[in-house]
Amino acid sequence: MSMEAETTQDAITSSTEAATSAEDVVDTEIGRHNEKTALREAHTDKTKHRDEEPKPPPRKCGCTCKISCNCRCTCSCRDHCVCRLSPWDGQCGTRVSRNLVVSTDGTSNQFGIRNTNVVELHSRVLTDTADQNKYYNCGIGTYVPYENQTSWKYWRQRLGNGLDLAFALNFKDIILKAYRWLSQTYKSGDKIYFFGFSRGAYQVRTLAGMIETVGLIDTGNEELVPFAYEFYLERHKGVVTKEATEIAAKFKKTFSRDVRVHFVGVWDTVSSVGVFRGKPLPLTSSAGHICTFRHALALDERRVKFLPEYVEGGSSTFSTTGAGIDVKEVWFAGTHSDIGGGVKKNLDLNSSSVPLLWMENEATAAGLRLKPRDGGGVWKVEDLRKDDVHESLTDSWKPLEYLPLTRLSFQTPDETTATPHLGSGRIIVPGQRIHISVAFKSKDYRPRANFLRESSIKWDSFIGKEFGRDDFEWARSFGDEVEMDLFDGSFTFEAFQKLRNLWAQGEQETQDGTEHLGSQASTYGSESYWIERLAFMVLSGQLAANYLSELEPTSPDKTVKQVHAAVELFEKLQTHRPHTFDADVAALLEREARLLVGLGQKTDALQTYRKAEILRRKLATEEKTRTADIGNLARCLENIFWRCSDLGMFNEALVSIEETVKLRRLIRSRDEAISNSAALGYSLNSLGNALSNVKRHDALRVDEEAVELRHKLAETDPNLTKDLAQSSHNLGVDLSKVKGEAVQLHRKLTETNPNAAKGLAESLHNLGVELSRLGRHEDALRANEEAVEIRRKLAETDPNVIKHLSNSLHNLGVEFSRLGRHEDALRADEEAVDIWRKLAETDTTATGALASSLYEQAYDLRVIGRHKDALRACEEAIEIHRKLAETDNTVTGDLATSLYDQAYNLRVIGRHEDALRADEEAAGLRRNLMQAGASVEEDLGRSLENVVLNLNAIGRHEDAVRTGEEAVALYEKLPDSTARSGHVANTLKHLAVYLHAVGHHEDTLRADEKGAEMHHKLRKTDPSLTARSFHVLAEDFHTIGLHEDALRAEEEAVELYREITTQSTHRPALLRERITSLELFAKILRALGRAEDAARTDAEVASLERGPVDVAVDPSPSLSPIRGNREQAAQGEPSNEGAGNRSSSQA
């Protein structure tokens, strides 16, 4: 056994009691869990919220409620959702709905003698029932037989084809015809399949992009189709404006159905066969809007005008942490027409070419129903040996190779060059695969294509392989660089039916000496023949999926029986070929377990997952173990963890998830891809759950590791930010549990030992801090109130407690303020200030705490309208910080913060000159801190934003523009994040107003459009943060008298808050933010003289406040949600009862 195998085996414990079962979690699609995590993170109640079962991304549901679902609805009709009836594991549409197939042939191709793969596949699409409809467009205006070369129609067609080849005259017309057919035929839940060759391939990719952009137009509105196409093309014509984007979105919402294309299968996509290469059409270079994308490419094509169009810049290994998408780009031997067909006679539509069978197999696995081929699509050795690659670079095409034509360089995504092509071979980019059939070409064959980067595939050793019985381990060593798929998957069900019949009849195998692929001496039709064929199909990893795709849709309980029958059938195959079918049996068992979960049979599901675990463990501990096998075992064990957790078997669940984490670490040590790191982070999060469930405090250590890992991931992939938030939340929950236990212990001690009251007060104080960080402000308030009460009594006899009493009063004020009880907060603040003022008379170390309490007091005074008193309190805090900063540089940041807040107080009462001086001083201090190495760029940006507001208010518009540009430049240097986007968007909106004031209208338009575009993107990823951003923008404009601009911004905020808080999963804290937003909205309306509208807004506020509103404010850590809100949770105390750090509002 190799050292690597030994390491693997060590990493995989053989405990049979360790594992338990649950829902599949796919490593490469771990980010599918993000949306659910966000919903869980949104609920901050009194229990610890952990992720539960991972689910695929929401998609259109076929159930009666017509809402988005996760393949198991959360609505009342969830038990009848058709998504749950599916034996197929797809991501779009539903298995029980119809398949709509659109096929578009290449330019100059038509049905006839030399039929392409598009025609052949189209002919095999079953339409024997109403569940599959198909549409074909050849792209030829008039049909003319190939032999009729004396007809004027023939020469007219040749001329038309030549013009179309050069200038794509029919391009739009073909797309719109297919779009109209789909619009008229589509019904909710249908799956859409696209197939195309050459430019027809590009046309179906364009069609998919159009559907994503403007939707599939409602039946009866077909006259609007040309307009829909124009709206789609806006991105192609130039800069995308906010208006163009909004028009397309509104058009989609008003006239169309929101549909996601299920499958796109194309052969050798070419966009520019003609004279000129234009810009790529929108979404044709990506596949994120397509569930499954398959692309067959020609290794031997060399013509410059037939260069292929890859997706994602040629990389099919891009991050899939967002929506689940499935991309394969696979290379085959041959030129453009060898891959797509049409170069030789195919009147019988039975060419069975390798690229065609591969595409059919992929489509079948995705749910398409095809007619079985005669004899099960038998492959013969000589078929693969044939060296029938045609030379396409003929004399008529060669002159173009010497011209400086603009073309893709394939060195980096979308890079072009005008260097003459000179008949160079194509470029194979990382992430693409070589089809296994290439290895069986004759030893003399050498592909013309070249690898962009170093590859483990060397043509000399890769090509010329001989067939052996199951001896394909050499191919496995190439991993994902080779596509292990060489059979006609559509006959899978037929093969099993043949075996059933043979087993029932007891027929003995016979031999006839024919050399078939995978079985050189078995007779066609015998038991051994079919078993050998199926054994070879195992290499693709899709045998079980192909079998399940052929099952008839039915009710959930009957589907379980169907899948169980499939398990028994595959287990019988295991008896004939031990080990060969283990992975497929495991996959079927896992499918059966998932279905049992859906039926509520969790115990049976657990037992079924354990059976799968035995096989997964066996595969993962073999000598030549693949990383994929280890990943499959990890997924199975994680599923077991969930099922055990559901059943309350927490100790068993812990064993399973501990091993899962161990395996994930091993996988990540081999490959530090984002998907592997994300999977480890997910498993660590689950491990924290498991440890917490059995009350083990080492959950804290695991939570911290998950937070650290996910923090790094979020820096490179913003889609994972919500996962980070969930882990951070769990860490806080575990901390609060530990501190809650400390409170209980101290309570018991005080029953027998009154001296323990001091420890109880400390525990209550620290518990309040953690509860506040979790957003549980009502609970935090109660903890702080009790701490204050205990410390008041202790302070009567012990002067040393007075300092700690002030700490608790300070935090009590913070919680009152967060709950909107500012009068109560002010009373706590004033008492804390009085205590610190007396202490500071004899203890200079108390002055910093006094300044912090004055700062908080100023805030509460301002909120209740006592602006002059707020100014005085804040001014005193500034003076203290100023004196401290003379001898202590660490106080400089606090001084800047106090100045920042004082400037806000001054701006509110219209003293803009004084506000400007305070903001400029704060900005200067923060510049100095930044030059000294402190990370205060974001704080400096905020100070500059406020300088801009003041400059504009006093009429210095040119200076406002310059400072605003400095703020934008500063923000753009910050790491990419949603908060950074919010700051940049708001500053750009400010700039647009000031640029307009100085007459720079073109710059105004650019700044406004860019800011709007950033707000639009931010709205999609984080609507609550976007609402806060708009609210802050409105408050800025309102304070300097720009009420119309303020109204527009606050309208956006109010609309967003209404959307968010009407969802069933909104955070209660967001209702308070909505109320605050509406209150400002009413103020702005009154400033504009719209009293009636303001009164209606007041009525909405009153209605919300009468409801069960948790008025906790939940500010973002990096973008102030409501300017002036306390932006940092109350601080805790060290365990030695020291003074502790005071909370200070961040700028």
From TrEMBL:
<dbReference type="InterPro" id="IPR019734">
    <property type="entry name" value="TPR_rpt"/>
</dbReference>
<feature type="compositionally biased region" description="Polar residues">
    <location>
        <begin position="1"/>
        <end position="12"/>
    </location>
</feature>
<dbReference type="InterPro" id="IPR018712">
    <property type="entry name" value="Tle1-like_cat"/>
</dbReference>
<dbReference type="Pfam" id="PF13374">
    <property type="entry name" value="TPR_10"/>
</dbReference>
<dbReference type="Pfam" id="PF09994">
    <property type="entry name" value="T6SS_Tle1-like_cat"/>
</dbReference>
<feature type="domain" description="T6SS Phospholipase effector Tle1-like catalytic">
    <location>
        <begin position="98"/>
        <end position="361"/>
    </location>
</feature>
<feature type="compositionally biased region" description="Low complexity">
    <location>
        <begin position="13"/>
        <end position="23"/>
    </location>
</feature>
<feature type="region of interest" description="Disordered">
    <location>
        <begin position="1"/>
        <end position="57"/>
    </location>
</feature>
<feature type="compositionally biased region" description="Basic and acidic residues">
    <location>
        <begin position="29"/>
        <end position="56"/>
    </location>
</feature>
<protein>
    <recommendedName>
        <fullName>T6SS Phospholipase effector Tle1-like catalytic domain-containing protein</fullName>
    </recommendedName>
</protein>
<feature type="region of interest" description="Disordered">
    <location>
        <begin position="1101"/>
        <end position="1147"/>
    </location>
</feature>
<dbReference type="InterPro" id="IPR011990">
    <property type="entry name" value="TPR-like_helical_dom_sf"/>
</dbReference>
